[in-house]
């Protein structure tokens, strides 16, 4: 039977923060039981973006200390982890880190060493990934060109090792490396060959039901957690889907955090053939998640409100009708995700005039991001043969009523809003404990006039998007 009668400690390993929070038996956050360590990636030349591993882990451990000091580490039945996908660290033969954490936003790599007989379509169908710098088959050869690693691991693997003294990974985290055979749940032989490694150089993959416990040193540091089972980490995209209430093939979950995504969770057995434009990862031993991700979302909103120096009362495009702005924003400030190859620094605005306001620019940006997400949703509709129900979740959704309504109008269908902002932590707990949380938020219906305006805007946006892609790729 699923567990529903105890509190859960969730560790959320994000790109902008590491957090520890306590969830009640119904998977809602316990008031006041949240500790956060802010993460500031270091950016450099050539597309470099890194996270300091020591600072990250010590900050997370400090979050647990804070929860203990405030009396929140009591009556905990399980410890779960939700983590960013795609990160990698090169390790020495003794397990020491030779590099910082390389997260998804880092764009450095070297060309993939493949022969003329390499079939990327077959590779994509098996692994759900492309031969792209986001994934380990391209990351590892690049890392090997700058250091001499013996092993490789992701951030969640190293956090788990620090806590339990066991370096293992989950099928969910492994799927985000681009080295997993999705059907078998084992490392893919061709992906390993392209990367130039053996499976023994990567963390062993443990089943969803595996649990570890805190090492003796940490059991002394947090005695209330001694012997509490620690579950394998779930990739943040999969966790966010389940956490919003999108946990079967009838429902697409749209989550907006630093980045954004639209995804559908479905059984891995008899999964529909994967279109080239979409990725597919694993949720757990029995389920996969198929979708499309977008690099500009909450980060776009934060950047633009900062550039425009908007105070808290003006961070929504109040007074601008959805789909009505003359300005069109193509949100490629952080480039595009694969299989497209638009580099960062390619964002564009069209139609600017002297009478445009900060609200016009903000509306154009949020509208552009909504149209990008809608492209993925329509592909998923076609893949699953129905107009999917939609649930919205994440910090960006929680923060902006205008954006919620814009997405609903752009999708031209009703949406359900997840009432909990902590969808990643909630989903990781649901995956580990076999639960199916409901959205429990407001229901939105599209306004007909908004839908019509967006429908008129869409062809102009698509034309200008294509122009932006062409210009960005010709200049890169």
* Percentage of residues in helical conformation: 25-40%
CATH class of the largest domain: Alpha Beta
Number of helices: 14
Strand numbers in spatial order across the main sheet: 16-17-15-14-20-21-22
**Helix/strand-derived class?**
alpha/beta
> Which geometry do the CA atoms define?
globular
The major sheet is characterized as: 7 strands, mixed
Number of strands: 22
pLDDT averaged residue by residue: 94
Radius of gyration: 22 Å
Residue fraction in strands: 15-25%
CATH topology of the largest domain: Nucleotidyltransferase, domain 5
- Low-confidence regions: none
Domain Carbohydrate kinase FGGY N-terminal: 8-243
Domain Carbohydrate kinase FGGY C-terminal: 252-432
GO molecular function, one term: kinase activity
Pfam family, one: FGGY_C
Write the layout of secondary structure elements.
Blueprint: E1 7-13, E2 17-23, E3 29-38, E4 42-43, E5 49-50, H1 53-69, E6 76-83, E7 89-91, H2 120-127, H3 136-146, E8 151-153, H4 155-164, E9 169-170, H5 171-175, E10 180-181, E11 186-187, H6 189-195, E12 205-206, H7 216-221, E13 234-235, H8 236-244, E14 251-256, E15 260-267, E16 279-282, E17 287-294, H9 298-307, E18 328-330, E19 348-350, H10 358-384, E20 389-393, H11 395-399, H12 401-411, E21 415-417, H13 423-433, E22 443-444, H14 448-475
Parallel strand pairs: 1-6, 6-13, 9-12, 14-20, 20-21
Antiparallel strand pairs: 1-2, 2-3, 4-5, 7-8, 10-11, 14-15, 15-17, 16-17, 18-19, 21-22
Helix pairs in contact: 3-6, 8-13, 9-10, 10-12, 12-14
């Amino acid at each position: 039977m699923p567990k529903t009668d105890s509190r859960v400690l969730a560790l959320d390993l994000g790109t902008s923060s590491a957090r520890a929070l306590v969830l009640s038996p119904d998977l809602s956050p316990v008031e006041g039981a949240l500790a956060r360590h802010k993460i500031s990636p270091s950016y450099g030349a050539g597309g470099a973006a890194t996270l300091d591993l020591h600072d990250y882990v010590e900050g997370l451990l400090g979050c647990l200390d804070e929860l203990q000091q405030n009396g929140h580490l009591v009556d905990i039945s399980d410890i779960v982890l939700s983590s960013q996908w795609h990160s990698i660290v090169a390790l020495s033969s003794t397990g020491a880190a030779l590099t910082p954490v390389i997260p998804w936003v880092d764009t450095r790599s070297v060309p993939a060493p493949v022969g003329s007989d390499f079939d990327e379509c077959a590779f994509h169908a098996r692994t759900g990934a492309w031969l792209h710098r986001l994934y380990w088959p391209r990351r590892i050869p690049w890392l090997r060109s700058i250091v001499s690693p013996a092993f490789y691991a992701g951030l969640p693997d190293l956090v788990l090792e620090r806590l339990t003294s066991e370096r293992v990974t989950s099928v969910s985290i492994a799927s985000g490396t681009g080295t997993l055979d999705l059907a078998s749940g084992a490392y893919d032989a061709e992906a390993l060959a392209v990367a130039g490694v053996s499976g023994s150089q990567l963390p062993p993959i443990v089943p969803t039901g595996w649990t570890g416990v805190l090492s003796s040193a940490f059991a002394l540091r947090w005695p209330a957690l001694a012997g509490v089972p620690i579950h394998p980490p779930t990739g943040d995209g999969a966790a966010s889907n389940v956490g919003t209430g999108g946990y079967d093939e009838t429902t697409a979950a749209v989550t907006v955090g630093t980045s954004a995504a639209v995804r559908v969770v479905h059984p891995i057995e008899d999964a529909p053939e994967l279109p080239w434009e979409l990725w597919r990862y694993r949720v757990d031993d029995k389920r996969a998640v198929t979708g499309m991700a977008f690099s500009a979302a909450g980060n776009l909103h934060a950047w633009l409100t900062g550039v425009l120096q908007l105070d808290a009362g003006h961070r929504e495009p109040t007074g601008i009708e959805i789909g009505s702005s003359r300005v069109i924003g193509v949100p490629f400030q952080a480039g595009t995700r694969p299989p497209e190859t638009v580099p960062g620094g390619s964002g564009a605005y069209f139609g600017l005039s002297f009478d445009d306001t900060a609200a016009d620019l903000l509306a154009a940006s949020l509208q552009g991001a909504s149209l990008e997400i809608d492209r993925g949703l329509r592909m998923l509709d076609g893949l699953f043969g129905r107009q999917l129900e939609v649930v919205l979740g994440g910090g960006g959704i929680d923060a902006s009523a205008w954006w919620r309504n814009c997405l609903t109008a752009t999708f031209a269908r009703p949406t359900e809003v997840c009432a909990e902002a902590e969808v990643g932590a909630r989903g990781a707990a649901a995956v580990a404990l076999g639960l199916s949380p409901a959205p429990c938020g407001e229901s939105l219906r599209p306004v007909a006039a908004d839908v019509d305006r967006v429908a008129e805007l869409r062809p102009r946006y698509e034309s200008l998007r294509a122009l932006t892609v062409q210009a960005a790729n010709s200049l890169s």
